[in-house]
Amino acid sequence: MNARRIIGLLGLPLLLAAGIALAHTVAESDQDFVRNAGGVQIVPFLYLGAKHMVTGYDHLLFLAGVIFFLYRLKEVALYVTLFAIGHSSTLLLGVLTGVHVNPFLIDAIIGLSVVYKALDNMDAFRTWFGWQPNAKAAVLVFGFFHGFGLATKLQELNLSRDGLVPNMLAFNVGVEIGQLLALSAILLVMNYWRRTASFARHAYGANVALLTAGFVLTGLQLTGYAIGQ
């Protein structure tokens, strides 16, 4: 597998993201189920949570950037845990308490999280400003925004209050399961690529592609916000 193909596998979401204005959009069939679901539905909400994460291009782009230069499994686990804590807390907070924010603005910030991580991987902050943001704090903070992004979409579906708490807990567990599955696939590709001589030559270009995707996502959301005003 050559470097271009590896970058293509890692960057497939970049191409898909350009055609998706709302990365957190829930499929229509799933929307119908969620709207009509009454009572405790643990297994279906587990599945929906995992499905959302596996198809959540913005989440995957950000996480791919986070683990891009992480070589030790312990470091990967730490950063993924911080993201999960942030994502889970605001997802549950938003849905269970009704705290609402404009979905376009939240998704624009999520796009900027991808931009941030690409710039961080390119050592741009140190080059431009002479300092490096705290990577762990940034992952946690952006995890909060990613969770709110999904919460805004779920709130639009007018979820039934009957069984809401266990269903949302199941959904959240499903999201984390999906995250582990997606990260496992990304890590397999990344680890193979890192063992080749092409990684050092093409790593910067891959992060330029990541940066571009982040700007595309941000631009789409800001355009949607401007049109809706």
Q: How much of the polypeptide forms β-strand, as a percent range?
A: under 5%
Helix-strand pattern, N to C?
HHHHHHHHHH
Measured between the Cα atoms of the first and last residue, the distance is 47 Å
Shape: globular
How is the biggest beta sheet arranged?
A: none
What is the domain tally?
1
Oligomer: single chain
The residue ranges in which pLDDT falls below 50 over 5 or more consecutive positions are 9-23
Helix proportion range: over 70%
Cα gyration radius (Å): 18 Å
Helix-and-strand structural type: mainly alpha
What's the total number of strands? Answer: 0
Q: Number of helical segments?
A: 10
Summed over residues and divided by their number, the pLDDT gives a mean of 83
Structural write-up:
There is one protein chain. With about 230 residues, the chain is an all-alpha fold. The protein has one domain (about 5-10, about 40-229). The protein contains ten helices and no strands. The chain has helices at about 5-15, 30-35, 40-55, 55-65, 75-95, 105-120, 125-130, 135-155, 165-195, 200-229. Helix 5 packs antiparallel against helix 9 (about 165-195). The longest helix has about 30 residues, at about 165-195. It is globular and about 55 Å long. The N and C termini lie far apart (about 45 Å). About 40% of the residues are buried. Residues about 10-25 have low confidence and may be disordered.
Q: How is the topology of this model organized?
A:
Elements: H1 3-17, H2 28-36, H3 42-54, H4 57-67, H5 73-97, H6 103-121, H7 124-129, H8 135-155, H9 164-194, H10 198-228
